[in-house]
Design brief:
mainly alpha; globular
Length: 545
């Protein structure tokens, strides 16, 4: 593609991605910690509900759509941010690249105008990418601190007169620091995947843009070389987080003796999260939204006011009106009709992925947990290898090999989506292997495959259903990302990701072309995330009354 060795190209593009991801993870960690502390300060309050909603939206919003809206608002309308790229053209060829990090290079140049121009270009992609890590950090850190506030050392501190703020900052937060480091390492690894879409929108000259350019040029050496490099960096980040987590746990003797507060202990000392009503609301809202989405896909021919594929060039790019509620696209097609029909390929793709991942993941997990020994070691090491692969990057590489399309996209996304099902099934099988239930089945002469799939499999299905519901939001975002990059379902079929890509060409003048399908992606992802959270809380005995 460039005529240079792939290693040389990666050396030139990695600094830009590392700089963007590092600034984004620092942004996400700073605001994620603040939001988690505010949420835990008074669980169940309106502030806690707002924080949970913000973190859930951060999980559900498509990052490429948010990047486009950010460019529209802060660059085109308010002029607060720089345009695409790392610097204005006036500075781009005058800066001497010393380290590859634009903030450091512009600072070392001594030109303060150039340095502030780099900040002006960087803050918007950093904020967009940082919102992804902020959502994960807030959510997991909040859950960890809620698990700590009912433990004995917190009760002791409160009984000595320590205030709630002091307990959170001086007692609870230090004991979840190991969890924070692990979350940061995993979030940093996920930044490398989010950078693919963010760099594409902002024309950021990093590995993400390099990958998309290689995909369109069908440069397989560059694609495979980048996959290997991303996998190594992802493994390094995850291993570093695990090591630090183990070190902090072993260095913290208090964590070895902390036990949950029992019902017999005084209720005055207990800090009750009070999640009962919210659990029902989360499940009911998620169910209603998911049903609306399914009904829209099922009855699309009757709900859509126009044929989604008929072109009317004379009314192209018309704004929303009484006749076309969401406007028209570049070919004069009604956007509302295409958004409604777009639910069909999205849900079909998601269904195909689940049909491929759930049986395979359960087969691997149950076999590893039941058989044990060398079979378990081989299967779980294979699972760990696939789990460490950057999912979106690997999906793009597989689609580049197989070709774009519905089935190929499903196969590509399913390849990296089954390990969570496998790990969960293995853990449950290990817990069931020595249970009285299976011992009674063995006494009746039941064993082997009949015991595995006739008795263990039905007990693993409820948790697999919950895991599938929790995975649906991420799968929808990944499939939309494939469509946005032109590697998913191909036009003229109405698909939300490709519709956003078409609208990105006219985002500054006709914003509704990209806003409508992006809002549909957010709606679908939010519906299934709410449904998954509600099912998890309903079926997890740790959250029972």
């Amino acid at each position: 593609m460039t005529g240079q060795p792939v290693s040389s190209d990666l050396m030139h593009t990695f600094p830009a991605t590392i700089e963007l991801a590092t600034c984004a993870i620092l942004f996400g960690a700073f605001f994620g910690i603040i939001l988690a502390l505010l949420s835990v300060y008074k669980p169940g309050s309106w502030l806690d509900n707002i924080v949970r909603l913000v973190s859930l939206l951060g999980y559900s919003v498509p990052i490429f759509w948010l990047s486009l809206l950010g460019l529209l608002l802060f660059y085109a309308v308010l002029h607060w941010a720089g345009g695409p790229g790392r610097l204005d053209d006036a500075y781009l060829y005058t800066m001497e690249p010393r380290t590859g990090f634009v903030l450091i290079d512009t600072w070392l140049s001594g030109d303060r105008d150039m340095f502030f121009n780099a900040i002006r270009h960087m803050w918007l992609p950093v904020t967009v990418l940082g919102l992804l890590s902020m959502a994960g950090i807030t959510r997991l850190l909040r859950a960890s601190m809620l698990g700590e506030i009912n433990k004995e050392y917190v009760i002791l501190a409160r009984s000595k007169g320590a205030g709630r703020v002091r307990v959170l900052l001086c007692h609870v937060f230090p004991n979840v620091f190991g969890t924070l480091i692990t979350v940061l390492s995993l979030s940093y690894a996920s930044m490398l995947e989010g950078a693919v879409l963010t760099e594409t929108v902002f024309a950021w000259p990093g590995v993400g843009r390099y990958l998309t350019t290689a995909l369109f040029a069908a440069d397989m050496p560059a694609i495979l070389g980048l996959d290997v490099a991303d996998w190594q960096q992802l493994c390094a980040a995850q291993c570093a987080g695990r090591c630090v987590d183990l070190f902090t746990r072993s260095a913290n003797p208090v964590s070895l003796f902390m036990t949950p507060l029992t019902p017999e202990q005084p209720a005055l000392a207990r800090v009750a999260p009070g999640r009962g009503a919210r659990r029902v609301t989360t499940l009911s809202v998620g169910t209603v939204l998911a049903v609306i989405l399914l009904l829209a896909a099922l009855f699309a021919p009757w709900l859509a006011p126009f044929d989604p594929n008929i072109q009317h060039i004379e009314i192209r790019l018309m704004p929303p009106s009484a006749q076309h509620w969401l406007g028209t696209d570049g070919f004069g097609r009604d956007l509302l009709s295409r958004v409604i029909y777009g639910a069909r390929p999205t849900l079909l793709l998601v269904s195909l992925i689940l049909l491929l991942t759930i049986p395979f993941g359960l087969l691997i997990g149950i076999s590893a947990g039941y058989l044990g020994g060398w079979v378990e070691r081989i299967l779980m090491r294979f699972t760990d290898i696939v789990l460490s692969l950057p999912s979106l990057v690997m999906a793009l590489a597989l689609v580049a090999i197989l070709g774009p399309g519905l089935m190929n996209g499903a196969l590509a996304l399913a390849f990296t989506s089954w390990p969570p099902f496998s790990r969960q099934a293995r853990a449950e099988t290990l817990a069931l292997r020595r249970s009285d239930y299976l011992a009674a089945a063995r006494m009746q002469g039941i064993g082997g495959f009949r015991l595995m799939f006739g008795h263990i499999l039905p007990l693993c299905m409820p948790s697999a259903v919950v895991r599938a519901a929790l995975s649906l939001g991420g799968i929808i975002l990944s499939s939309a990302g494939l469509g946005f990059l032109g590697m998913g379902i191909q036009p003229p079929t109405a698909e939300w990701g490709s519709m956003v890509a078409e609208g990105s060409k006219v985002i500054f003048d006709q914003w509704w072309v990209a806003a409508a399908p992006g809002g549909a992606i957010l709606f679908a992802s939010l519906a299934f995330n709410l449904l998954g959270d509600g099912l998890r809380d309903k079926m997890d005995t740790r959250h029972g009354n």
